[in-house]
Fold this sequence. Notes:
78% helix, 5 helices, mainly alpha
Amino acid sequence: MKFLLRMLVSAGAIFGVAYLSDGWLLEVVSFWPAAVIAAVVLALVNAIVKPIVGFFSLPITILTLGLFSLVVNALMLYLVAYLVDGVNTTGFLQTVIAALIISVVTSVGTSLLDKD
C-alpha cells in the first residue's frame, strides 16, 4: 500500500513539474497515464541503475562536494524520458531543475506518508 502511495506522490510531482512549468522544465504529453508510468519507471531506474552510476561517479561526486549527484539525478530523468513515450525533456539545465524539484517533492511527500 505504501508503495502505491509513493508512486502517486512521485507521479504527482512529475505532473506538477510538467503542468506548473507549462512544459518549460518537463513535457508530459498525456498527463496522468504518462506521469504514472514515468513514476514507476523512475522508481525502477532509481532502484537499479542509479546505485551503479552513483558508485562509478563517486570520485567525481566527492571532488564536487556532492553537486555531481544533481547531474546523476538529471541523467536518471533523461533515461526515464527516453524510456517512457510521452515524457520529454527540454534541455540539460531544465532537466537538472526538474529532477531537483521532483526529488524534493517526492522526499517531502513520502516522509509525510511514513509518519504514523
